[in-house]
Design a protein that fits this description.
It is a single chain. The model has no long low-confidence stretch (mean pLDDT 96). Helix 4 (88-94) packs across helix 5. An eight-stranded parallel β-sheet has the order 7-6-5-4-3-2-1-8. It contains nine helices and eight strands. The chain has a single domain, classed as Alpha-Beta Barrel (TIM Barrel), CATH 3.20.20.10. The protein has helices at 3-21, 40-48, 59-68, 88-94, 104-113, 143-151, 171-191, 206-211, 221-224, and strands at residues 30-34, 53-56, 76-79, 97-101, 121-127, 156-163, 197-199, 216-219. It comes from Bacterioplanoides pacificum.
């Protein structure tokens, strides 16, 4: 068994255990394999193990992989990095999901540049739930306005919220941030019934995020190994 296969099995089992401990079904939480900086052949091997959703932060790196792996019919690409205005066209063209929308201008550009023959682009709003000045993302209070804009853009579909919580060992602080996200997400669902995704939790806080209601966890190094 390869190291990648061992890692993948370990992560998927950890996710199953987290769901069971929280009284949830494993199918309720999607595993997003963060494949940034990793070569296409490693992504393909992970796909062959059953993984379908992959997250990319760097556009140029991602475009090469997406082109190389076009033959994998069920692969799903999520853009999870910061979005510059001059990069919206290729993001709108090559990805099925964008998880880091936090500006009106970016939302409009993604909508305008999404090809007519493609399904609407699935969008998550990135929320700066910890309020750290160096982090991208809107405040919890700004969610309704950006959600309303996206709802009016025909080539985008609002699917939910995403956050990167504070980098802290204080589990109570993390739990509080995740709880704020879940509350905001539930409020969003009441207005927009298609909203079904709450993306929070990474390697260090997977169990806590699942317990607090996450529907997607983003795992990179624990699957693919340290950045190469």
């Amino acid at each position: 068994m390869s190291t990648l296969e061992q890692n993948y099995q370990r992560v998927t089992q950890r996710l199953i255990n987290a769901c069971q401990q929280s009284g949830r079904q494993p199918g309720e939480v999607r595993l997003l394999a963060v494949s940034k900086t990793k070569p296409a052949d490693m992504v393909e091997r992970c796909y062959q193990l059953g993984q379908r959703s992959f997250g990319e932060n760097y556009l140029q790196d991602a475009e090469a992989k997406i082109a190389a792996l076009q033959h994998l019919n069920e692969i799903e690409w999520h853009f999870i990095g910061p979005i510059q205005s001059n990069k919206t066209r290729p993001i709108a063209t090559h990805f099925q999901w964008v998880e880091t929308v936090c500006r009106d201008k970016i939302a409009r550009r993604l909508n305008d540049q999404r090809p007519d023959d493609m399904a609407p682009l699935n969008v998550l709003l990135q929320v700066n739930v910890s309020g750290e000045p160096q982090k991208a993302g809107i405040s919890l209070a700004d969610i309704p306005a950006l959600a309303q804009l996206i709802e009016q853009l025909p080539r985008l579909t609002l699917r939910g919220l995403m956050c990167i919580p504070e980098n802290t060992a204080d589990e109570a602080a993390l739990a509080a941030q995740f709880a704020h996200m879940k509350h905001a997400w539930q409020q969003l669902q009441q207005q927009y019934p298609q909203v079904d995704t709450l993306s929070m939790g990474m390697s260090a806080d997977l169990e806590l995020a699942v317990a607090q209601g996450s529907s997607e966890v983003r795992i990179g190094t624990d699957i693919f190994g340290a950045r190469g």
